[in-house]
Design goal:
The chain has five helices and eight strands; from the N terminus they run E-E-E-H-E-H-E-H-E-H-E-E-H. The protein has helices spanning about 25-40, 55-70, 100-110, 130-140, 160-170; strands at about 1-5, 10-15, 20-25, 45, 85-95, 115-125, 145, 150. The strands form two sheets. Strands 1, 4, 5, 6, 7 and 8 form a six-stranded parallel β-sheet that branches. A two-stranded antiparallel sheet has the order 2-3. Helix 1 (about 25-40) crosses helix 5. The relative contact order is 0.20.
């Protein structure tokens, strides 16, 4: 059996250090890449067909509307095969207290029966929010373990912590 690392991340305008900063690479992507490399696991980026706005506040408004409407924005494919995959490291930013709806589009399309999901959430102080409970309720065929919250602005310096957590969470 094997592990897959899948993540949703957003470069460009993000919130950090008390204001809007421009990121050349998304915080979650930095952590997911480090975990995939350390675990020698394939990496899948969850990307929407329609990109989110460049403007941070326009993106947060859209994300709030998607959550309220329980939207499932279209994502780019093809999706990875889950054949032989029994462990999934799932990286995402905390958007309005849970996973972005694009992550749910991804998970809805997979057979998660018997898969262990290890949630990795980046944020600027809101922690995991209700994302772990939401994942457990939404995907009861999977085993969702306790997640790891990492502040986005410390993502680059927290790759070792994320790798150690992933190894323990999937053991």
């Amino acid at each position: 059996m094997s592990t897959l690392v899948a993540y949703f991340s957003r470069a460009g305008q993000n919130y950090g250090h008390g204001g809007i900063i421009d990121l050349p690479k998304g915080n979650t992507e930095i952590l997911a890449e480090a975990i995939a490399k350390a675990l020698d696991a394939p990496l899948f980026k969850i990307d929407t067909v329609e990109p989110y706005p460049i403007d941070y506040y326009a993106t947060t408004d859209l994300a709030k509307r998607e959550l309220r409407e329980k939207a499932r924005p279209a994502i780019q494919g093809p999706l990875p095969s889950m054949e032989g995959v029994d462990k999934l490291v799932l990286g995402y930013p905390n958007w309005w207290g849970t996973v972005p709806m694009a992550v749910k589009t991804f998970l809805d399309a997979l057979d998660l029966s018997g898969v262990t999901i290890a949630p990795l959430c980046t944020n600027e102080g809101s922690g995991l929010g209700g994302s772990v409970g939401d994942l457990r309720r939404s995907y009861p065929a999977a085993r969702v373990v306790d997640g790891l919250s990492i502040t986005g602005t410390s993502a680059a310096s927290s790759t070792g912590k994320a790798v150690s957590w992933a190894r323990r969470a999937l053991a």
